Amino acid sequence: MKKRLMTWIKKIITGLVIAVMAATFFQVIIFRYVNPPFTVNMIYEKAIAAHKNMPFKPRSYKWKNLEQISVYLQQAVLASEDQRFMSHHGFDFREIKLALKDIITRKGFRGASTISMQTARSLFLPSSRSLTRKLAEAWYTVLIELVWDKKRILEMYLNTVDWGKANVGAQAAAQAYFSCDAKNLTDRQAALLTAILPSPHKWSAVSPGTHVRLRQTRILRQMKNMPVLK
């Protein structure tokens, strides 16, 4: 009886795992062709606010195709967030190795997330921190690298990344911070927007401090070496 029960439980677990894998794969296939009307995190934040009876400011979000986003912003995010974007397959193992080395030697924590990983996180997952979420992020990263091309990944990233002050995506950020469309961002504006991405709720593109200005300068210097996806 006990053996039969264990067999039954294993079958249920296996079935659930297969179902989840199939559902997530279907999600990624859909978004290869369909532009998302919202992100999971947008729904999650609204649900949390409602549950806690907290005021909620609706997120500003408007999709723009990659051709409608400044090439300077495309180059800026590559320069700042993922310079090996075109050569890796979702995971930059060189950066991961350096991040682990810094942790071991107690030099502090450095991010090793690629644009592919950040896209998986911003589109499909809530902003909570947990091991389950990190595993889901890795799984979605594998899927989007298999199903989407690099242009689609960058396009999705630029439209779903959190730019702070309730702004999601390049168009919302461009309008909020510089009163222009994403297409018309200058190189300096693009570098400044990208400079605040590690902490968009803490750093400001309107009143940038010394650290943000230094990041902007470094990004501007490196942008010229970054490709433009067509």
Describe this structure in words.
Helix content is 60%, strand content 2%. The protein has a two-stranded parallel sheet with strand order 1-2. The mean pLDDT is 89. The protein is built from ten helices and two strands, in the order ααβαααααβααα. Helix 3 packs across helix 10, helix 5 (115-124) packs across helix 7 and helix 9 crosses helix 10. By secondary structure, the protein is mostly helical.
Features:
single chain; 230 residues; mainly alpha; 10 helices; 2 strands; 2% strand
Topology:
Blueprint (H helix, E strand, L loop, with lengths): L1 H32 L6 H12 L8 E2 L9 H11 L11 H12 L10 H10 L6 H17 L2 H11 L6 E2 L1 H9 L8 H9 L14 H14 L7
Parallel strand pairs: 1-2
Helix pairs in contact: 1-6, 3-9, 3-10, 5-6, 5-7, 9-10
Structure described in brief:
This protein has 230 residues and is mostly helical. The protein contains 10 helices and 2 strands; from the N terminus they run ααβαααααβααα. The chain has a two-stranded parallel ribbon.
Question: If you average the pLDDT, what whole number results?
Answer: 89
Order of H and E elements: HHEHHHHHEHHH
Indicate the structural class.
mainly alpha
Q: Helical element count?
A: 10
- The strands making up the biggest β-sheet line up spatially as 1-2
Query: In percent, how helical is the residue content?
Result: 55-70%
Number of strands: 2
Radius of gyration: 19 Å
What kind of sheet is the major sheet?
Answer: 2 strands, parallel
Q: What global shape is seen?
A: globular
Q: Which stretches are poorly predicted, pLDDT < 50 over at least 5 residues?
A: none
Termini separation comes to 61 Å
Strand residue content: under 5%
